Amino acid sequence: MIELLIYMLLAVIVLTIIAAILINSLRAENTVRTSAEATDTAQLAAQSLNRGIHNASAIEVSAPVADVAVVRTRSLDSSSEGVWQCQAWVVVDGQLRTTRSDAAIPVPTTAAEVASWLLVAEGVAPIGTDPIFSLAADERSLAVGFTVANGSGIPVTLDTTIISKQPIPATGKVTAPCF
Questions:
Q1: How far apart are CA 52 and CA 130, in angstroms?
Q2: Tens digits of per-residue pLDDT, 23-82?
Q3: pTM flag (> 0.85)
Q4: How much is the CA Rg of the chain, to the nearest whole Å?
Q5: Does residue 67 come out as left (phi exceeding 0), alpha (psi in the -120 to 50 range) or beta?
Q6: I want to staple 55 with a disulfide (CB 3.0 to 4.6 A). Which of 66, 75, 83, 101 is the partner?
Q7: Residue (of 75, 83, 103) closest to 165 by Cα position
Q8: CA-to-CA distance for 28 and 21, rounded, in angstroms?
Q9: Which residues make Cβ contacts (< 8 Å) with residue 77, sequence separation at least 6?
Q10: Element (DSSP H or E) covering residue 135
Q11: Which residues, in sequence order, are CB contacts of 52 under 8 Å at separation 6+?
């Protein structure tokens, strides 16, 4: 009888250890998954901004109201014909959204105005007190700096400068019809 109790006690201890290992493995898997999702989101944001800024003949940055950051460009699309389009990105309510148009895109000031725009990233926040978007004096280089939330982990940081690769026309910066 005592031997049976000892075996049962050992079985409970072994099962408890196995359960603890399983629970910790599931927690680790969740942490890795949320980190990978945040990293993927930051990379997607970087790719979207890179494509638009590299192909821009003109870039405009504005902060129309507190906690809203806007970048608008006149950019070549990625088609073989190279058609000029207006493109914009906005960070509002922790979301990075983008849109394209053949006509000028008005500067948005609220989340409701951009609800139909393509959602690129959620959990976006500035790095410290620096602006999310900052245009250099040459109006060809865009500094981008923000973090993307990573669940309860350390946020993923995107901090880079993107430079337009389009030549400046002899007539100067071309903004029409975008802004």
A1: 22
A2: 888 888 877 787 878 888 999 999 999 999 999 999 999 999 999 999 999 998 877 788
A3: no
A4: 24
A5: left
A6: 75
A7: 75
A8: 10
A9: 55, 83, 84, 85, 100
A10: strand 133-135
A11: 73, 75, 87, 89, 98
